[in-house]
Amino acid sequence: MQEKKLIEFRNIVKSFDNQIVLRGVSLDIYENEFVTLLGPSGCGKTTLLRILGGFLNADEGQVIFDGEEISDRPPYQREVNTVFQKYALFPHLNVYENIAFGLKIKKMGKDVIEQKVMKMLKLIGLEGYENKNTTLLSGGQQQRVAIARALVNEPKVLLLDEPLAALDLKLRKEMQYELKRIQQEVGITFIFVTHDQEEALTMSDKIVVIRNGEIQQIGTPQEIYNEPANRYVANFIGESNIIPGTMLEDYKVRFDDITFDCVDHGFRENEPVDVVIRPEDIDIVDVKDGKMTGEVLSVLFKGVHYEIMVETVAGTKVTVNMQVTQNRDAVSADGKEKMSATDFYVDIEDVKKMDDKEVIARSNAQAWDPASDEYISITKIEYELEEKEGDYPVRFSTAGGLSVERTIHVVNQPFVRNEKANEGVMAFNFMTTVEEIRESQALDIDIKTWANAQAWKLNNENESVDITVDYDFDPDTITEGIYPITFWTPGREFKIHTTDYTEVGQQVGLTFFPEDIHVMARAM
Amino acid sequence: MKKFSQLAIPYIVWAVIMLVLPMALIAFYSITEPGNSIFSFSVTLDHYVTFFTDGDFLRILWRSLWIAVKTTVICLLLGYPVAYFISRCGERLQNRLILCITIPMWINMLVRTYAWIGLLTEGGLIQRILSFFLPDGTQLLYTESAVLLGMVYNFLPFMILQINTSLCKMDGALLEAGADLGADPVQTFARVTLPLSLPGVVNGITLVFLPAVSSFFIPKLLGGGQYFLIGNLIENQFITVGEWNFGSAISMVMALIMMLLMAVVRRLENRNRGGQDERNF
Amino acid sequence: MKKGKRPIGKILTALIVAFFYLPILYMIIFSFNDGRSLTSFTGFSLRWYKRMLESRTMMEALYTTFSVALIATFISTVVGTISAIGLSKSRKAIRNLMEQVDNLPMMNPEIVTAIGFMLLFITFRVDKGYLTMLLAHIAFCIPYVILSVMPKIRSLDPNIADAAMDLGATPWQAMTKVIIPQITPGILAGALIAFTMSVDDFIISYFAAGGGVKNLSMVVYTMSKRVNPSINAASTLMVAIITIVLILVNVIPIAAAKRRTSYEIKKKKALIPAVAALAAAAALVVFLHAGSGAGGRPFEGQTLHFYTWGEYTGENIINDFEEETGAKVVLETFDSNEQMYIKVANGESYDILVPSDYMIQRLIQEGYLQKLDPSKITGLENLVDSVKNLPYDPGNEYSVPYFWGTVGIVYDKTKVDMEDLEREGFNIFLDEKYRGDIYLYDSERDSFMMALKALGYSMNTEDMDEIQAAYEWLIQCVQTMDPEIVTDEIIDNMAQGRKALGLIYSGDATYVMSENEDMGFYLPETGTNIWSDAMVIPANAENPELAHAFINYACEYEGAYDNSSFVGYTSANEEVMEVLSGEGGDFEGINAYLPRTDNDMDEVFEYNENTRKEISNLWSRVKIAASNAD
Question: Residues of A with CB below 8 A from B173's CB?
Answer without folding.
Answer: 84-86, 88
